[in-house]
Amino acid sequence: MKKLSSGEIRQMFLDFFKSKGHSVEPSASLIPVDDPTLLWINSGVATLKKYFDGTVIPKNPRITNAQKSIRTNDIENVGKTARHLTFFEMLGNFSVGDYFKKEVIPWAWEFLTSDKWLGLDKDKLYVTVYPKDKDAKELWEKTGVPASHIYEVEDNFWDIGEGPSGPDTEIFYDRGQSFNNLPEDDPESYPGGENERYEEIWNIVFSQYNHLPDGRYVDQPHKNIDTGMGLERLVSVIQGTKTNFETDLFLPIIKATEKLSAGKTYGNGGRDDVAFKIIADHARTVTFAIGDGALPSNEGRGYVLRRLIRRAAVNGRRLGIKDAFLYKLVPVVGDIMESYYPEINRNKAFIQKVIRSEEDRFAETLDAGLSLLNQTIADLKANNETVVPGATAFKLFDTFGFPVELTKEIAEDQGIDVDMKGYEKNMEAQRTRARAARGDAQSMGSQDKTLMAIKTPSKFTGWTDLQDDAKLTDLIQDDQEQDRVTGGVAQLIFDQTPFYAEMGGQVADHGEIVDGTGAVVAKVTDVQHAPNGQNLHTVEVENTLKKGETYTLKVDVERRKKVSMNHTATHLLDQALRQVLGEHTHQAGSLVEPTYLRFDFTNFGQVTEAQLREVETVVNQQIWRQLPITWKEMPIGEAKKQGAIAMFGDKYGETVRVVTIGDFNREFDGGTHPTNTAALGLFKITGESGIGAGIRRIEAVTSKEAYDYLTKQQDELAQTARTLKIDHVDGVPAKVESLQQELKASQKTVEGLQAKLANEAAAGIFDDAEKAGQFTLIAKQLKVAGMKELRDLADQWRDKDASDVLVLATANGGKVSLLVGASKAAIAKGVKAGDLIKAIAPAIGGGGGGRPDMAQAGGKKPEGIPSALKQAQEALAAK
């Protein structure tokens, strides 16, 4: 077997399929673009769905890629098995309606066994096929695989519900019995079984059916090939390692972690090895995810990042690493991946900053989690109980980032179990909420046979013309080609059109279609790209439309003008944000409407008011500079040399359109623009907010809408001035500040009076403590303002050491405040203020809690106060 590095193996795979006529697609961002069904890109085909469902026809139906991917459905298994990873690379070759089984099976065998390529031992390769797929079995035999090395497995059918599906074939490598975790005669010890001897290295899916909503499977119009080969597994086979973690993809990270640990070394087995593996895997995942724009948070993919960083930190402590360390591994990951992912080292400073910040934040949370767990264990032992409740274990995981296995380990050291069924119940409830949040969007749509079949060319003339005569070449209604339509909604394709199709956040043009008599025959309400790239017009038909006739297409000029100005504003805003916030900021989405624009961007932390003002100023300065706006098509290499900015997450062909705004901005772009920034007139930010993990959103207006916005604000300020009875709006800030000072003074007076009333109400209440069993108790209802006054009285009670237990209540406006205090002597005898208030709070229709020495509750039943006080007396008497 050849000695190859991971980088050589990856490149060899891509070179092989390039030699078979495939286009090499670059690895896409881990953050899905326009795909709500995925949290992360989780396979090579995930970025190609638009080709497989027929939404877009690729220029080359043969595609290959090495796609970075994340899967987090079984994080708990990472480090415990030889293969489980959260971040991995999937090598794939794909056919979109081109070649099929008879080509792909011999190619797979050639790549694996040819001395020119991997040169694997043929005798160690096995394949599995779907029992009904006789063609695949015969092709493997013709290729040279003996029948004894071909297994029929019922599970070899790829199906995700509605959409493309079909049988698949898997290729396994026999690593030998010494690698196995099962006896050789075990029923699972075969290619495809649950064992570690036969390593699956390639899965080839023959996507030939459409799975319909009614459950039927029908032939697809175009049969496809979708394959996946895990790079980490293949490298492990070729480098002869026991697990993925001894390969050159992971071992440098492990060695770097050894140097950071308290003298720990990898390879001794047990918990330490698991910790090293978890850290190595998670270091790769968070490095790449943050590099692609994800940031830690409490939801979605940000939550996954937070969990991984915390899990790595916990395992670092297991290795004796007490301080932040994960961020130090980012350059190690970058060096390993430099040959194919140079952007990691380019962005390492920002990635390290994010990870370090999260590690420091978790250091405090980790201590709090340990405190909660230790208190829980102490309470269980005090009550002769032996099981940590599932809800508590889940809280430790969900709130403090404690993996449940860590909770189990700490508890087991104290002779305590964990209610895993309760934990799983809480976990499943969380998964259900997550699934509901993602919605019911299909993972991959079905192919539209009618639109896919239309290949008549169509030219876009709307860069320069907003009215044009064009021949109606295709007329579709009710998903069928028609010769004529007289009403309803239809879809039209012309040989040329000035109507812009929605793309890159810019909405589609609207307008009219006019016949030779000047009559409007249809209203254009939307324009999208058809599968083969033509502009597909959705229209409301008002008169007869005939295929083959020539019509005049008229774009709504005022709408196009407004949209174009707002599109230019997004370019100016994008550049200004980079200039003010830093180069790590990049576009995460946009919407360009006629009356406003919306721009989403990545940023670690909030944008300050001063930064927003600076961004707004920078944009307006470019408008007032009257910069020329030009656009030109050029080879992508030339565009990159000129410094053109690519839209994050997008893929581009060999020729790109570049829009240049004076000396300020140059971007890859397919939208429309005015010819000079002066057309925008004015730019005004109307709102800024966070919309997700590390994603901020700016809303803004330009031109007349910006003037209208400022005028409205001026009118509201003038109205405020009239209300405040001042002559000029310039005096509003000073008047408001004066009123605030008066209000503060009034509030202080009120607080003083309330304190005086509280002291008067409290006069003598500490002088008549009553007996309640072995305790002394002061239990009173008072007429004070609220909880603050009760807490002040509790402080006096504590200073006076007036009784063992204090229970105070007050009611105002139908709301009840209840407070319980317990002295040190009472606590020593088993009284806990938190427990007592939980017992009596239902009487006032509420609930509460707190510390052993002080607790409080709120309720809405003032009439229940006497009962609550009585219950407190009875509870103490019973102790």
Automatic annotation (TrEMBL):
It is an enzyme of class 6 (ligase). SUPFAM superfamilies: Class II aaRS and biotin synthetases, Putative anticodon-binding domain of alanyl-tRNA synthetase (AlaRS), ThrRS/AlaRS common domain, Translation proteins. Residues 847-866 are annotated as: Disordered. GO terms for cellular component: cytosol. It catalyses: tRNA(Ala) + L-alanine + ATP = L-alanyl-tRNA(Ala) + AMP + diphosphate. Its EC number is 6.1.1.7. One of its GO terms (biological process) is alanyl-tRNA aminoacylation. InterPro entries: aa-tRNA-synth_II/BPL/LPL, Ala-tRNA-lgiase_IIc, Ala-tRNA-ligase_IIc_anticod-bd, Ala-tRNA-synth_IIc_core, Ala-tRNA-synth_IIc_N, Ala-tRNA_ligase, Ala_tRNA_ligase_euk/bac, DHHA1_dom. CDD domains: AlaRS_core. Residues 4-712 form the Alanyl-transfer RNA synthetases family profile domain. One of its GO terms (molecular function) is aminoacyl-tRNA deacylase activity. Keywords: Aminoacyl-tRNA synthetase, ATP-binding, Cytoplasm, Ligase, Nucleotide-binding, Protein biosynthesis, RNA-binding, tRNA-binding. It is found in: Cytoplasm. Catalyzes the attachment of alanine to tRNA(Ala) in a two-step reaction: alanine is first activated by ATP to form Ala-AMP and then transferred to the acceptor end of tRNA(Ala). Also edits incorrectly charged Ser-tRNA(Ala) and Gly-tRNA(Ala) via its editing domain. Consists of three domains; the N-terminal catalytic domain, the editing domain and the C-terminal C-Ala domain. The editing domain removes incorrectly charged amino acids, while the C-Ala domain, along with tRNA(Ala), serves as a bridge to cooperatively bring together the editing and aminoacylation centers thus stimulating deacylation of misacylated tRNAs. Belongs to the class-II aminoacyl-tRNA synthetase family. This is Alanine--tRNA ligase. It comes from Lacticaseibacillus camelliae DSM 22697 = JCM 13995. The gene is alaS.
